[in-house]
């Protein structure tokens, strides 16, 4: 199976914060891979802008070192790497001052797509947007890319939306959530809406419950200062997990187009029931032999910030009323694993004399690692001696089913950056969607802040605090095992 690579239009992309960690680890490697694939042509240019005084040649040398550290050797062909580095430029620039803006304006070319990637702290968004307009660098066809966190709560998210809206239209603002760029997440929509097989069963009548898990085996060391201000609820639930919930639960859009898809996601968020105190569990990972605990990683012995959260969520609409969605995410868990598991109800009547043998049908969408789909069904156990039922998986690993293409799927940032150049906002969050997610999340966080309780401790390498297990057990259900 060969995929078509369709080159994008010529563009000038300015990466503010171009010497930062995100640019080195994600943005520049993504652009290089698309260049190697032939999607980014020689007519495209990437201009890094940052405070550091640096020549363009020095920036190219730093980029070459970053690419060598981020990409496998087979991709780093000397000729292709040199050609990509020729596409790079650098401008020393002060976001809140006037230094460098005239030089940046002089580098912009007429007649090409202009995209501005704000790989900087949200506090600088307003200053960058204002100066891009004031110096005539951005026009009404330009695109602005902003990373999370998009606010710390509803008020700050509204303030950021207002700052950007003063200078750019909603159709020009691309709020990235890299989970939406994952192939498996997009395949969730394809499986649901391109196959008649599943959609008639995708409702409360046939689905017992849904589990969404985003587990990380690493702790927060190196990100402690940020993470202790955010916590799992802000860092994961409000954005990444909310998007997975929306794509799982939303109604079929009338068309696969930006506003049609985002309208349906917004309806899901607005239909979410308020989270009851008994339906949420917080945790912090404890020290383990040779490993610090959360409090040591964030250098704050009095921290009340959660590194784990589990929730039971209800959706009050005709499709999902009565079917709970269980969400959990955490650091320093047993393994790195992200999946959506749709557990179907048992048949209304069994014709087999097989008490205790029946196990539920489950569709599992694996996001990482080993991306793919798995459907567990009941069959007859082979052999003579009666009708004995056994559960077996119908397993599709992308790596096996799609060959080389499945093993070398594009990074999420590759897909999303190319969508920015194409002007396709389908996989980006809209301003009202972000605000609605914060409006649902804020009361939960406010309740925690008011109580001042410590999160429950859990052992590093476990599946989280015991209280999270009881969140499921009291309903007669069990979390799926997080497997190394």
UniProtKB/TrEMBL annotation:
Residues 189-480 form the Glucose-6-phosphate dehydrogenase C-terminal domain. This is Glucose-6-phosphate 1-dehydrogenase. It comes from Ruixingdingia sedimenti. Keywords: Carbohydrate metabolism, Glucose metabolism, NADP, Oxidoreductase. The keyword NADP applies. Pathway: Carbohydrate degradation; pentose phosphate pathway; D-ribulose 5-phosphate from D-glucose 6-phosphate (oxidative stage): step 1/3. Its EC number is 1.1.1.49. PANTHER family: GLUCOSE-6-PHOSPHATE 1-DEHYDROGENASE, GLUCOSE-6-PHOSPHATE 1-DEHYDROGENASE G6PD. Belongs to the glucose-6-phosphate dehydrogenase family. Catalyzes the oxidation of glucose 6-phosphate to 6-phosphogluconolactone. HAMAP family: G6PD (MF_00966). It is an enzyme of class 1 (oxidoreductase). Substrate binds at residues 178, 182, 216, 235, 331. InterPro entries: G6P_DH, G6P_DH_AS, G6P_DH_C, G6P_DH_NAD-bd, NAD(P)-bd_dom_sf. Residues 14-187 form the Glucose-6-phosphate dehydrogenase NAD-binding domain. The keyword Oxidoreductase applies. PROSITE patterns: G6P_DEHYDROGENASE. The active site is at residue 240. NADP(+) binds at residues 17-24, 51, 148. It catalyses: D-glucose 6-phosphate + NADP(+) = 6-phospho-D-glucono-1,5-lactone + NADPH + H(+).
């Amino acid at each position: 199976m060969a995929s078509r690579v369709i080159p994008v239009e010529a563009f000038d992309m300015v990466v503010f914060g171009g010497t930062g960690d995100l640019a080195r680890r994600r943005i520049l490697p993504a652009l290089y891979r698309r260049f190697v694939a032939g999607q980014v042509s020689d007519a495209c240019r990437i201009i890094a802008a940052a405070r550091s005084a640096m020549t363009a040649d020095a920036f190219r040398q730093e980029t070459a070192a970053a690419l060598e550290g981020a990409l496998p050797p087979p991709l780093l062909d000397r000729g292709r790497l040199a050609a990509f580095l020729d596409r790079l430029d650098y401008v020393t620039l002060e976001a809140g001052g006037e230094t460098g803006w005239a030089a940046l304006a002089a580098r912009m070319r007429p007649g090409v797509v202009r995209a501005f990637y704000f790989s900087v702290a949200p506090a600088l968004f307003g200053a960058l947007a204002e100066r891009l307009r004031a110096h005539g660098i951005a026009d009404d066809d330009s695109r602005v890319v902003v990373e999370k966190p998009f606010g710390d709560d509803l008020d700050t998210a509204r303030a950021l939306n207002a700052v950007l809206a003063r200078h750019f239209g909603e159709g020009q603002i691309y709020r990235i959530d890299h989970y939406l760029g994952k192939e498996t997440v997009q395949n969730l929509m394809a499986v649901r809406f391109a196959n008649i097989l599943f959609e008639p069963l995708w409702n409360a009548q046939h689905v017992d419950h849904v589990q969404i898990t985003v587990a990380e085996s690493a702790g927060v060391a190196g990100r402690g200062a940020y993470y202790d201000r955010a916590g799992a609820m802000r860092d994961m639930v409000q954005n990444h997990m909310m998007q997975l919930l929306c794509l799982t639960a939303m109604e079929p859009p009338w068309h696969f187009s930006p506003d049609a898809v985002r309208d349906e996601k917004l309806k899901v968020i607005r239909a979410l029931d308020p989270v009851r105190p008994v339906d949420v569990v917080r945790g912090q990972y404890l020290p383990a032999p040779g490993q610090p605990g959360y409090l040591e990683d964030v250098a704050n012995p009095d921290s009340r910030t959660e590194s784990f959260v589990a929730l039971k969520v209800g959706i009050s609409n005709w499709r999902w009323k009565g079917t709970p969605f269980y969400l959990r995410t955490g650091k320093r868990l047993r393994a790195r694993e992200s999946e959506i598991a749709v557990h179907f109800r048992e048949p209304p009547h069994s014709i087999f004399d097989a008490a205790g043998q029946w196990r539920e049908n489950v569709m599992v969408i694996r996001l990482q690692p080993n991306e793919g789909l798995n459907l567990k069904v009941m069959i007859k156990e082979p052999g003579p001696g009666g009708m004995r039922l056994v559960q077996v998986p119908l397993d599709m690993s992308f790596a096996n089913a799609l060959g080389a293409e499945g093993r070398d799927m594009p990074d999420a940032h590759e897909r999303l950056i190319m969508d920015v150049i194409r002007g396709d906002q389908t996989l980006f969050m809209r301003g009202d969607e972000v605000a609605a997610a914060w409006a649902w999340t804020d009361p939960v966080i406010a309740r925690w802040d008011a109580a001042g309780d410590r999160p429950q401790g859990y052992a590093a390498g476990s599946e989280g605090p015991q209280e999270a297990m009881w969140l499921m057990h009291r309903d007669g259900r069990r979390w799926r095992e997080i497997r190394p």
